[in-house]
Amino acid sequence: MGREGVWWSEVERSGGKARSTSTEVTDGPQAEGIADGEEADLSDTGFWGTHAHALDPKGRVVLPARFRDPFRPGAFITKLPDGCLGVWTHPEFKRRTVDMVDRARKGQAERNVARVWAAGAFNTAPDSQGRLVIPLHLRAFARLDGDVVINGAINHVELWDAQRWAEIDAEGSQFLLSGTDALDQAGF
Asked: Can you give the residue range of the structural domain that contains 39?
């Protein structure tokens, strides 16, 4: 997503404080105002965790309570690679849109991806019970029909078909267990 560099931290506890060990990230919520060695409150910088929910008969999904506040002014839902949906706050959607426009200048394939991404985007807001309407075309893309996994993905939320997420989770967990050089390069 256009990130230049890597940002890692030592987390004391979920939603707790962290000490920055690098400040190379140039955009996103974690990049703002955190100097090397400075403490940051991670509870306000992004979305974390996995939650299981189900679509209701009207095609709505309940956002976990801890994810709702940033989306109260509104949210954009988009298609993402790997067959899931992204839920973006308005500021993150704006950043993502700028990134898509830049990518579209690179060639025909990139323009087509940007077109499909923009054409499928849906502007919505959670209702008073924290439910988001997922339009039929986006539910079909992500194969959402029943159980849904809602994952925090740092600067956005991802909506996955539960079975597909189990496959992705197993693959990613196996990679973590493999102890490959790629993990060392990623800071693990």
From this structure: 1-44
